[in-house]
Amino acid sequence: MSDDAYAPRPEHKFSFGLWTVGNPGRDPFGEPVRPRLTPVELVALLGEVGAWGVNLHDNDLVPIDATAAERDRIVRDFRQACADHGLVVPMVTTNLFTDPAFKDGAFTANDPAVRALSVQKAMGAMDLGAELGAKIFVMWGGREGTETDGCRRPDVAVRRFREALNFLCEYSIANGYGYRFALEAKPNEPRSDIYFATTGAYLGFIPTLDHPELVGVNPEVAHEHMAGLNMTHAVAQAWEAGKLFHIDLNDQVIGRYDQDFRFGAANPKAAFWLVKFLEDVGYAGPRHFDAHAYRTEGVEGVKDFARGCMRTYLILKEKAARWNADPDVRALLAGLAEATQAAPGVGAFSPDTAAALKGHRFDRAALGGRELAYERLDQLTTEILLGVR
Predict the structure, then answer these.
(1) How far is it, in rounded angstroms, from Cα 342 to Cα 234?
(2) Long-range contacts of 95-99 (CB under 8 A, 24+ apart)
(3) What are the pLDDT digits (tens) for 347-387?
(4) Which residue stretches of 22-90 are H helix?
C-alpha cells in the first residue's frame, strides 16, 4: 500500500463512470482527440489509478442494438475485468437522451410509445445493474424538457414522470433488486429547459410518489453551479431530509455550459466546504466523479485527471480536519454560539412558550450591534486552504 497520504483507498469509495474516463474529447465543435477504449480497458485504467468503483449507463457497456448473445458476452467479460482489477459497480443508470427516439423526452414525451419504450429500456438497465451488483439507480432526465412550452403542459410532464418512476419502483420491488433511486437535476442542456431544474425541485417531488422511501437525489456540482446555486446547501438539504443517495463530484465555472471539470479545478473553496460537509456528517455513500479530462489530453492525461479528482478530495478532507481543529477557528465558533442576552427558548410549541416569547423584551440594539468576526473566520479558512496555517 502506498505511504502517500493522498493515495486513494477502497474505504474512500471513489468511483468513476465509464463515460467519464471513456470520454474521447469530442465536443460540439470538434471531433474526438483520444482513442475510444473498451469497457474492459477502462476498468483496467481505473484499477491502475486506484478507483474503488465503476459506474455506467446501460449503453456505455452494451450497445443499444446488441443481440442477447452479444449482451451476455459483454457483461461476462466486464464482470471478469472488474474482478481482476478489484472494482465494484455501485451504481447504474440508463441512457434516455442519445438515441433519436428520445429527442422529445423519454418518460415525459408526448408519444405514448416513446414513454413505454423509455420504461422498457430503464427496466433493462435495472436488470443489467442487478446482474453487476449495483444497488443505486441514478435517473437524469437529459431530454425531459422543452424548447417551447407549447409542446406540453409542465404539470402533465410531472404526472408522466411520476407514473414512470412509480412503475420502476414496483419493478425493483417485484424482482427483489433493492434499488435506491437517485434523481439528478439539471437546469438546461441539452434541452433549453429541463424539468426539475434543481435538487430542491426533486426534494419537493419525491413525497408525491407511491414509494418515497426508495427515492432520493443525486446532486451534481456542475449542475447546481450552472444555475448559480450553492452545491453544499443543496447537499445539506438532501442530507437533512435523508435523501442524499448518491453524489456527483466535478467542477464548473458559475453560469457556464456544463463543463464537467476535474473536481476542485474551478472553485476550490466551494469544493472545500462540500468535502467538509460530507466528512463532518459522515456521508458513507460513493463519491462519484462525473467529469472528464480536458480535450488537450491523451490517455495518460485521462489518468492524471482521474488521479487528480481523488487527490484533491483527499487534500480537502485533510484541510477540513485542520479547520475543525484550528484553535482560532474553534474559539470563533464557540463565541458565535454563545447567547448575548437571556431569552426564552423556542422548541416545540405550547401556549405557555408562546406567551413567554410574546412577553419577553429583547435588547434589539445590542443584538444588532454585535460583531460576528466572519471576516476573520473567512480569512482563517483562506489561510488554511493556502497552506500557511
Answers:
(1) 34
(2) 95/57, 95/58, 95/59, 95/60, 95/64, 96/121, 96/122, 96/141, 96/142, 96/143, 97/140, 97/142, 97/143, 97/190, 98/59, 99/64
(3) 999 999 999 999 999 999 999 999 999 999 999 999 999 99
(4) 39-49, 58-61, 68-85
Whole-angstrom distance, CA of residue 58 vs CA of residue 125:
5
Contacts with 131 (C-beta within 8 Å, 6 or more apart), sequence order: 75, 79
- Cα atoms in the Cβ-side hemisphere of radius 13 Å centred on 336: 11
Task: Tally the domains of the chain.
Answer: 2
What span, in angstroms and rounded, lies between the C-alpha atoms of 173 and 233? 32
**Residue 13 cell numbers, joined:** 469509495
Q: For 316-357, where are the E strands, in sequence order?
A: none
Q: Which residues are annotated as catalytic?
A: 57, 60
Same domain, 157 and 22: yes
Domain boundary at 324, 342, 375, which? 324
In the beta sheet, which residues pair with residue 136? 91, 180
Find out whether 180 and 169 touch, Cβ atoms under 8 Å.
no
Give the cell for residue 269.
473553496
**How many angstroms separate the first and last alpha carbons of the chain?**
29
* Cα–Cα distance, 255 to 262 (Å, whole number): 17
- Please report which helix (H) or strand (E) contains residue 287, including its range: strand 287-289
For 341, the domain range is 327-385
Domain-ending residue, one of 324, 355, 375: 324
Grid coordinates belonging to 78: 466486464
* Cβ neighbourhood burial of 318 (10 Å; 0-12, 13-18, 19+): middle
| Residues 115-155 pLDDT 10s | 999 999 999 999 999 999 999 999 999 999 999 999 999 99
The C-alpha angle with vertex 138 and arms to 154 and 197, in degrees rounded to 5, equals 35
